Amino acid sequence: MKINWKIVVPLAVWLLLAAYGGLMGPPTGLKLQAWYYFSLFIAVIIGLILEPIPAAAIGMIGIAIAATLGLVDANMNRSIAWALSGFSDTTVWLIFGAFVFSMGYNKTGLGRRIALRLVKLLGGHTLGLGYAIAIADLVLAPGTPSNTARSAGTIFPVIRNIPGLYGSEPGPTARKIGSYIMWTAFAATAVTSSMFITSLAPNAAALAIAKGTTKVDINWLQWFLGFLPVGIILFLITPLLVYWIYPPEIKSSKEIPEWASSELDKIGAITKQEITMIVLVLIAIFLWIAGSNQMISLPYVGSNFINATTVVLVGIALMIVTGIVTWEEITENKGAWNILVWFATLITMANGLNLVGFVKWFADLAATPLKGLNPLVAMGFLVALFFFIHYFFASLSAHTAAVLPVILAIGVNIPGIPSVPFALLCVYSLGLMGVISPYATGPAPVYYGCGFIPRNDFWRLGFIFGVIYLAILLAVGMPWLLTVKL
Fold first, then answer.
1. Burial (0-12, 13-18, 19+ Cβ within 10 Å), 459
2. I need a labelling partner for 375 at 20 to 30 A (CA). Which of 11, 19, 46, 434 fits?
3. Residue 252, SS3?
């Protein structure tokens, strides 16, 4: 019987790390239970990288082991409650809803029509398509605080139709153009998520935490101006960087726009189903924007805004009622359900690291040597630590709540670190760090699951773009924030 080394490696890492902690004792300041859980978490991450079996199954196995062994909570009732907690996370259902919205675009033909329009206008050059996709995200960003709703729910269902127009599908033909389009869209939304307070849900919460720790208090315009130099550079270079680092095989084609024009003539006038789908999408976008800006007040509700996930659930309900999609079609969408299970289990696993105290221990340990460094160097290292520790998280909101107060507290206790620039660099990095892994932010599982970007490429590109984004944030953002008066 042939042994699958991709299964053996994660298991071996888990057992070796756990055995080391059991025999030699955990690192100073860390409980043995936390070390055992960390050992399992690392094994799960390695399993996700190697993927010997589907990613959702790997996450489910990790959760089952942790819950059975009581690694997060010895009480079995609380342990199973923790194990299932990810399935109640709003982002998980927002991602699921994005897949259902995509079904509506495809079934009605609206996605193909919009894709053909884009190709007709800008399809003469692949780079032009990249910038068109990035601009579409930028236009929606100021009023859509959920990058999952914006990118996965609105942009992705449209651009998913473009690669097929060029004969590019998941698999051997993905690199023709599909891989470029999908990574550009994903990388661009990471940039736009940091450009505005209102373009990412955790941004406002991060500012509130920073205000309590460092007394920084800035408004929407000050946030925008503080990030502006970094944002302009990253927005302008991202489609071009993807074009250089992950080049499409199809660079340009004068015939393609002409073909797209002829295809538009063939499909004829817009249909009633397409109009219905347009209305539903506009309703969703309006609710995302108006709800986030507290323009909507609902009776018998304790808050005066509508959650982004609630909008998606309403959208799905309306799509079923209007016949855009049927419940049978939704239940048959294996990709949507697979992503739901995968991301729910990952969020749970990552949350477990915080619950057992590993995240705080690691942040304190990594920051200790920085106290003797030049304050600006120490500040840069702390921001980098805050950025890359996100590999341990599957939720930007959870990362913000768990790690930001720790990092800020460490920074303000190092003499010479300017508190306001330091706090802003940390909160500005939240959107950018979403690019680093297939689970780092809401849209990530959607682009990862679409099949156009192979597993190894996704991890590799995530690290490369993460390093580039962080480097520009520090190289441009730090001197700018040290000199500008917000």
1. middle
2. 434
3. strand
